[in-house]
Amino acid sequence: MDEMVEQLLRLCATSSTLIAVYDSEDRLRYANDAFRLAFFIDPDETPLWPDLMRRNFELGRGTVIRSSDFDGWLRSTQSRRGKIGYRAFETDLTDGRWLWMTETVQKNGWMLCVAGHRGFST
Question: β-pairing, 111-120 with 97-105?
Answer without folding.
Answer: antiparallel
